[in-house]
Task: structure prediction
Amino acid sequence: MDFNLTDDRRMLADTLARYLADKYTIEHRNEVAYEMPCHDPAKWDELADLGALYALAPEDAGGFGGTGFDISVVFEALGRALCPEPVLAALLSSRLLGAAGADQEALLTGGTKYAAALSELDAPYDIAGISCAAEARGDGHVLSGRKTAVYGAQVADVLLVAARLDGKVALFEVQAGDAQVVGYAMIDGGGAAEVLLDDTSARLLIADAAAAIEAALNAGIVALCAEAVGAMEVAHDTTLDYLRQRKQFGVPIGKFQVLQHRAVDMLTEIEQSRSITIKAAAELDGPQATRFAAMAKNMIGRAARLVAEEAIQMHGGIAMTWEYPVSHYAKRLVMLDHQLGDTDYHLAKVMAGNAAA
Result:
């Protein structure tokens, strides 16, 4: 994907592609995916050594990237390999730490794993509905409430928690060992956790964090869109290979015009997804970042589901088996729509923005 590839970005993309292709074959991936903790410490350290985490942060925070295109390069590679490591959690946390002016060295080296605890059962996407409560106590604060579907929290050392303080959404740092963290494997192979807080000690990072959280979520959405494009491309390529090899009535089924048309429809959706992701990456951190992130997430959600369903349909029964890669890509593509806001949520967000303009 042409994510404004400078020499440095191209080198990172090539390095990650080679590493992930070697380490995350379907067999290797299933050693760490689907079952707790959905994480391989050795592979995490290797990803950090390759610069995958440093690319998520700007130079003034200790990284060497941090732009929408840097993020997209990393996550497209992760999407092509279906890497289940909690890199999204690291990206969200890096953005939040950057807004707080906090040191990120431990995060970028991979030595300390962070997770951003933002969602709640009654506020899965919109931070305006956050009810987790913060209270000043002594020289610090305590938090009470529940955070849901916290990506990467099952292996996190530190949690960055959004909670309501004096009527505003604030950001706090919580040691994972001080909270009750109930981890689980998701259907697409990644890991998440429910975080239960009951007068849990916390350190205030940002008193009014709404803008910082929105900026972090925009970066996360760009990352998920790039990941989806990488996964869709693999699903499409795998489908084309199958159409060329599978024979019926003595000829490859790829010669049947109806299947050719469906394959072209898949490619059209992928190219449109690529374009909107590039636009969202270019606008990240600009005045229109939220609008284009929402537009991209809406389109990606619809396109990813179509590509997943078409890949399964054209493969037939083999696509549903554990041993065949398409089944895993389809699950990830469907689940991507539910992370950081689904198609309906982001469509409403775009329409509300248009109405206000």
Notes: The chain has three domains: 7-108, 114-209, 212-356. The domain at 114-209 is CATH 2.40.110.10 (Butyryl-CoA Dehydrogenase, subunit A; domain 2). The beta strands are 114-117, 133-137, 140-151, 158-165, 168-175, 180-185, 191-206, 247-248, 251-252. The mean pLDDT is 94.
